[in-house]
Amino acid sequence: MFFSRLGSLALSSASAVLAANYSNPLEPKNGGDPSIAWHDGYWYFTATNYRDISVRRATTLEGLKTALPKTVWAHSAEYPSRQCNIWAPELHIMDGQWHIYFSAGGCDDDSIQQSQVLRGGQSPWDNFDFYGTVNAPAWSIDGTPLTINGQNYFVYSCFRDDTGENLQSLCIGQNSDILTIGEEHLLASPTEAWERNGQMPVNEGPFALYSKNRTFLSYSGSFCWDPSYSLGLLEYIGGDPLQQSSWVKTGPHFSQANGMYSTGHNSFFTSPDGTETWMAYHSSPNPAGSCGDRYANAKKIDFEADGFPILGEPIAEGVVLPGPAGEPQA
Ligand SMILES: *[C@@H]1O[C@H](CO)[C@@H](O)[C@H](O)[C@H]1NC(C)=O
Ligand SMILES: *[C@@H]1O[C@H](CO)[C@@H](O)[C@H](O)[C@H]1NC(C)=O
Fold this sequence. Notes:
By secondary structure, the protein is mainly beta.
């Protein structure tokens, strides 16, 4: 199995280990589509800066605010098919090697957006090389790995639906290797009212969450500039993961509140001691909504006794909270 799971996310919140405090936002400008991972004493952070792929690291979440970004990949004029619209980098460890998935395409026409993969080393601080483009049909963005019953899948945002509306939906393919999937299948379309706010209906930004032997995909619904951009959940309920009928959609589970708008495009990460599940997400303080300059934020999430995630509410700017359990005290 080349994808490592997020770990069997322990549900216990009891921890004797104190953490450093932090407040949101962790990044107030280039914070869209944030991804955070803990590795060997450091948090690693990346997000959409539209320009290149950069990673920063610090021993505490709070420390990420002032950490200097290191550019790990920059486009080159030699490769016009991945020069522009550089979006949604995600850190994943697979087969013991760190990878970064991101979306990029040509400059004139984003219809050729595709998922690109960088391969690094055993630490996210090692150098990354361009590894390849996932063969999902263009247009495909926000690609992320998913593992069910030991089989690897690739989930991404696509233009496809079974309503004839040409909706920005979620698609899935079964991997034979990191860069190769089989036939594309429609997983979910923005059919609910909460997924259709703003300029166009959208499903995007999927991310896997494994809890008590239950498998979920969080995703973002509605147009990202709309203040009511929100998170929904798909739960795998058995059967062929490539079939829409094997998944149940619920939502919204995380929406504008506490002075934060356009809240979404999340990812999950685990506390250093392995006991807590956290979520990175972006938001805007602008009540009119924004998908331009965005805050990157982090919050702990909870679970019902049966393993169903409780994403809660966006945290107001500047509120001081304890960081993830096991984080060194700065
Ligand atoms: C975190 O903040 C609380 C409340 O302000 C404070 O009592 C506590 O000492 C702080 N913890 C650390 C590790 O700084
Ligand atoms: C976990 O879930 C999978 C698929 O949903 C199922 O096949 C398996 O039996 C479950 N295992 C346990 C221990 O419940």
